[in-house]
């Protein structure tokens, strides 16, 4: 039982309950301004954003992250705060993707395999083959 109590305390430290003060990030148009924890300038920006009907209609049809990215120029303080709150989910996603890929690559039959190169290629979105460099190096070796 002590183990579960320690686990609960550890989770509360690592993942504090922020649901009461940051609801405005999830839906800035329905939040209660009395429960919002922010400075005066941020509150002013939030009030302005709440009264912006064009953004309200965009919010209904747009992904949450994309919505906050669209507010960067007009509401920079709100954008920055929302980005800091939403960013950990993106980085957690990348870690989970890498772990899933690793478990798929490294099986019981491939346990001694050096997975680092395969994992790097599997997880990276922006790696493209550089055939011209490979062929040039092969041709250079062939001419010697």
Verbal overview:
This protein has 144 residues and is an all-alpha fold. Helix content is 65%, strand content 0%. Helix 6 crosses helix 7. It starts with a helix and ends with a helix. InterPro entries: HATC_C_dom. Pfam families: Dimer_Tnp_hAT. GO terms for molecular function: protein dimerization activity.
Features:
single chain, 144 residues, mainly alpha, 8 helices, 65% helix
Brief description of this entry?
This is HAT C-terminal dimerisation domain-containing protein. This protein is an all-alpha fold and 144 residues long.
Individual helix count: 8
Major sheet description: none
Subunit organisation of the chains? single chain
Low-confidence stretches: none
- What's the count of strands? 0
Helix content: 55-70%
Question: Mean pLDDT score, rounded?
Answer: 81
Q: Which word captures the global form?
A: flat
Order of H and E elements: HHHHHHHH
Q: How far apart are the first and last residues' alpha carbons, in Å?
A: 72 Å
Beta fraction of the residues? under 5%
Class from secondary-structure proportions: mainly alpha
